[in-house]
C-alpha cells in the first residue's frame, strides 16, 4: 500500500487528510508535538485496518525528521509527503512593528526550514516511488497583504517558492503547494482569538487534496476552493 508522511496530523486539516487516506488503505506516518492527542488520532485511524505510526516531536529537530522518514521506509517507502505543521510567529498575531523577531525565526524554522529538511530526507524514497508527491500547505496570506499576518504570510510565501523550485528541479515528482482557504482550526483561533465567525470544517477541504492525488496535475500552486468548484 502507498505510504504518506503527514506533519501536524493530530488535528485540523492534517488529521482530516490522514483519515481520508486511511479510508483508502494508505499506511501512515504521523507527526505532531502533543503525544497524547497524536496517539488518540492514530488509534482512531487504525480502525481502518491500515498501519499507522505516530511519532511525536518537533519538525525543527533533524533527528525527528530522520525518524519520520525511517518509519516510512519500514512501511515500504515514502509515496506522499505532506508538510502541514505550521507556526504563526505570534499568538495572537500582531503588526510587524510588534512582531518578535524570535517569533518570526520560529515561523520560518517550522514552516520553511523544517519542510525543506524533511523533503531532503525523503527525496531518495520519493524518487523511487511509482507516483511520488510532495504537498505543502500554504495560505492566502502568502499572496495577499493582511494586517498582522506579515510574519506568517512571509514564511508561507517562502514555502511556496521552495515548492515551485522543487517542482522544477524534480520533474519526476509532483509538488503541489495548496492554499486550503478559510478553515475552523486551532491555528486560526490562536491567530485571531476574537474572530468567532463560522468557518468551514477542515474535512470539507480534503476532497480538493484527494483530487490532486487522483488526477496528478502539474506541479504548482493550487487553491482548494477552485479545485472543489471544478469537481
Q: Supply Rg.
A: 16 Å
Kindly provide the name of the CATH class. Alpha Beta
- Describe the sheet with the most strands: 7 strands, parallel
What's the helix-strand series?
EHEHEHEHEHEHHEH
Question: How many helices does DSSP assign?
Answer: 8
| End-to-end Cα distance | 26 Å
Estimate the global geometry from the Cα principal axes. globular
Give the CATH architecture.
3-Layer(aba) Sandwich
* Structural classification: alpha/beta
- The CATH superfamily name is NAD(P)-binding Rossmann-like Domain
Low-confidence stretches: none
In total, the number of domains comes to 1
Query: Mean pLDDT across all residues, rounded?
Result: 97
Based on DSSP secondary structure assignment, what is the total number of beta strands? 7
Which fold name is given in CATH as the topology? Answer: Rossmann fold
Helix content: 40-55%
Fraction in beta strands: 5-15%
Strand order of the largest sheet: 3-2-1-4-5-6-7
Protein name: SDR family oxidoreductase
GO molecular function, one term: oxidoreductase activity
Keywords: Oxidoreductase
Family: Belongs to the short-chain dehydrogenases/reductases (SDR) family.
Characterization of the model:
With 231 residues, the chain is α/β, with parallel strands linked by helices. It has one domain (3-229): 3-Layer(aba) Sandwich (Rossmann fold). 46% of the residues lie in helices and 15% in strands. The chain is built from eight helices and seven strands, in the order βαβαβαβαβαβααβα. It has helices at 12-23, 35-45, 62-75, 101-128, 150-169, 186-191, 206-215, 224-229; strands at residues 3-6, 27-32, 52-56, 80-83, 133-137, 174-179, 220-223. A seven-stranded parallel beta sheet has the order 3-2-1-4-5-6-7, with helices on both faces. β5, α5 and β6 form a beta-alpha-beta unit. α3 packs parallel to α4 (101-128) and α4 runs parallel beside α5. The two termini are 26 Å apart.
